[in-house]
Amino acid sequence: METGTMEKNKQVLLKSRPKGWVSEADFELAEAPIPQPGEGQVLVRNHWLSLDPYMRGRMNDTKSYSAKAEIGEVMVGGTVGEVIETRDPSLKKGDFVVGMLGWQQYGAAPAKAFRAIDTKAVPAQAYLGVVGMPGVTAWVGLLTIAEPKPGETVVVSAASGAVGSVVGQIAKIRGARAVGIAGGPEKCRYLVEELSFDAGIDYKSSSFVRDLEAATPKGVDVYFENVGGDVLEAVSRRFNPFARMPLCGLVSQYNETNPVGLRNLHSFLVNRVKLQGFIVSDKPELWPRALQELASWVASGKIKYRETVAQGLENASKAFIGMLKGENFGKQLVKLV
Ligand SMILES: NC(=O)c1ccc[n+]([C@@H]2O[C@H](COP(=O)([O-])OP(=O)(O)OC[C@H]3O[C@@H](n4cnc5c(N)ncnc54)[C@H](OP(=O)(O)O)[C@@H]3O)[C@@H](O)[C@H]2O)c1
Asked: Which one of 24, 133, 225, 336 is least enclosed by Cβ atoms within 10 Å?
């Protein structure tokens, strides 16, 4: 692509801040000129956009661990794309890079804001999933906070998703028993039959609490928390003494105007449970090791993954809302090229 042409940069902007459930009307499809890269910058054509639950939090006008999205601005988001113009010697035309260019087709940013990726080893879009931020989240939360030992029982919620699927598979690699909680029989079957979890429990089933008990006969030593609400309450009744709970996310609560808190604190006290919230960007020094280990597990087939792909920016907001409702199966992506 030559940047002097009439081609425009399609973008998705934040139009309004949702109260409760996010809707497609909170987004606006817009067009802007393709940016020119400044000195030290590169211009990238995005091939893939990542859709992630944290984006819902960025739409709120509240203080959080990172800046909120602003009304009228491009929605934030991780991207993989191809360098099409460069004004920095560290990246050349044709390089594939992962960055944070947001919900748009093109973006210019300093070369140092990108990481060059090898798309021969794994497909480009996997750098937004299993060998990207969600994979590192699983690795950091499980291995540096929960530290499961062989024979222990690890339970993970949103288990068929981008983070949860990696958590359970690493737990198996470490010799633990992996129990995944997910929505619906198809996702639960996938956990056991394709990802080799020891059990997949459907939290939407009327027998959820009994099924969870049956799947955790020796109690729960690690609960990798992704959802909160009723699922958290049920799992907290199964804690063993000195259980660990990395608090990664609370996706069941992100669209609630009155989110529920921790209902069974007593279990945390009597079982001396370690609960630690964490954000994957807290420890950048761990990323290279995590990424290298994840890549080798993917290459050797020890970690498998699945993707749900929406086509084009015009379908991004619908896919984003669908993901928050569990319509995705594995990592939710938008294909842009
Ligand atoms: N702390 C960090 O640094 C960090 C980094 C990345 C992600 N996260 C968190 O990790 C969690 C998973 O993220 P992800 O990217 O891997 O997303 P994901 O699991 O691929 O997609 C979200 C899933 O959440 C589940 N869900 C939605 N509503 C639910 C409800 N009411 N109850 C139970 N499950 C529900 C759905 O699966 P079902 O069909 O199974 O319901 C949906 O597929 C999120 O909470 C996210 O915020 C945290």
From this structure: 24
